[in-house]
Amino acid sequence: MKILRDRSPSLAANFTSTSTRHPVAAAFAAAAGVLAASAYVNWRLAKKAQRENPPQGQFVEVDGVRLHFVERGTGKPLVLFHGNGSMIQDFESAGLIDLAARHYRVIVFDRPGFGHSSRPRNVIWSPEAQADLFMQALGRLDIQNAIVLGHSWGASVALALATRHPQLVQALVLLSGYYFPTARADVVAQSGPAIPGLGDIFAYTLSPILSRLMWPGMLHKLFGPRSVPKKFDGFPKAMAVRPSQIRASAAEAALMIPAAFSSSKSYDELSLPIIIMAGEGDRLIDINEQSARLHSEVKQSKLHRIAGAGHMIQQSATQDVMNAINEAAAA
Q1: How is 255-300 classified by DSSP, letter by letter?
Q2: Which domain covers residue 95, as residue numbers?
Q3: How far is CA 46 from CA 153, 196, 242, 277, 301, in A?
Q4: Is residue 180 a part of any domain in this protein?
Q5: Three-state secondary structure along 70-100?
Q6: How many CB atoms lie within 10 A of CB 137?
Q7: Whether pLDDT at 11 is above 50
Q8: Residue 308 in contact with residue 199, Cβ under 8 Å?
Q9: Which of 90, 183, 206, 293 has the smallest count of CB within 10 Å of its CB?
Q10: Residue 324, number of CB atoms within 10 A of its CB
Q11: Average pLDDT of 119-146?
């Protein structure tokens, strides 16, 4: 009896044959498979991060934007704006919210796209656009006049709020801000995920993986010359490396230089008390070109240079920041 053998090629053989005959198409197919798998893993990790770090505050909706905020304490209103890539937990882990809540009514927002706040893509979220948004949000919270503190990119939002809505801001406390346009090679590298189309692919596939790998080095740069304090362990890294937050951070990096160029034209209009703080060891921003220059151009400003501190002075010099808030309140 003659045994018939299956002579049809296997899947592996078919793939090998196709790869040999169409190497470019096979390479694209393999890359697409890897990207799809990465996107799925990142989506699952983002969902897990949100489950493990649920909203701790309340929400207010303004013009289709759902803003998450934490409110604590009583007294004169104090509004805190975090920097790029960050969220409420920065000030929370620093201990600044609890410290300030002893004497102030503290309101801390997740800015659009960060933490648990939404970020509609039909708006260019410049400092001015965010200032107008927060003006309405603060009105909903019945805040007519407040001390406003901003760190890094948040300092640009605080300045825009004081410039566009001066009746709302009693005094400013500005930490480690970027106020004047300068050449920034790092901005180009950080802006990639904000590019329409191609940027979305990176934001949802490779960027979260790269962000996790680069996290220790980034913290070294942000906190240097000091080491990262133990209390920063309370900051949820997994939330910061979600695709949506990476894209929001990239968009703000892309806006950094043009926003500084636009905002710097109106600094001479400011006449309220301003406390400017900067770490002398800041490895991200040249404080002489930024904080010291702003102090020289703005009336009624005071400059505090914190020796041995870096960019994250709200973490490494929390009591100094609290003293600056009290100084602004008394000005």
Answers
A1: HHHHHHHHHGGGGGG--S-EEEEEETT-SSS-TIIIIIHHHHHSTT
A2: 59-143+160-187+217-235+253-302
A3: 24, 21, 5, 34, 42
A4: yes
A5: EEECCCEEEEEECCCCCCHHHHHHHCHHHHH
A6: 20
A7: no
A8: no
A9: 183
A10: 23
A11: 97
CA dihedral sign, ordered 260, 261, 263, 269: positive
With respect to residue 126, please indicate whether it lies within any of the assigned structural domains. yes
Cis peptide before 225 (omega within 30 of 0): yes
Q: Are 248 and 114 in contact (CB under 8 A)?
A: yes
Q: Within 10 A of 246 (CB to CB), how many other CB atoms are there?
A: 27
Ramachandran category for residue 249: left, alpha or beta (phi over 0 → left; psi -120 to 50 → alpha) = alpha
Looking up residue 83, the CATH number of its domain turns out to be: 3.40.50.1820
Check residue 275 and give its pLDDT. Answer: 98
Q: 15 or 150, which is more confident?
A: 150
Asked if 317 and 306 touch (Cβ cutoff 8 Å), the reply is yes
Is 114 among the domain residues? yes
Residues paired with residue 97 on neighbouring β-strands, in sequence order: none
How many domains does the structure of the chain reveal? 1
Give buried/exposed letters for 93-111 (b at 16+ CB in 10 A, else e): bbbbbebbbebbbbbbbbb
Q: Is the pLDDT of residue 15 over 50?
A: no
**Of residues 15 and 36, which shows the higher confidence score?**
36
Q: What is the pTM of this model?
A: 0.91
Span 182-240, pLDDT tens digits? 988 778 778 888 888 888 898 999 999 999 999 999 999 999 999 999 999 999 999 99
Judge contact between 90 and 315, C-beta under 8 A. Answer: yes
CA distances from 210 to 34, 96, 114, 201, 241 (A): 15, 30, 19, 14, 9
Helix, strand, or coil (residue 152): coil
Q: How far is CA 310 from CA 227, 257, 282, 305, in A?
A: 10, 21, 4, 10
Q: Identity (one letter) of the amino acid at 289?
A: E
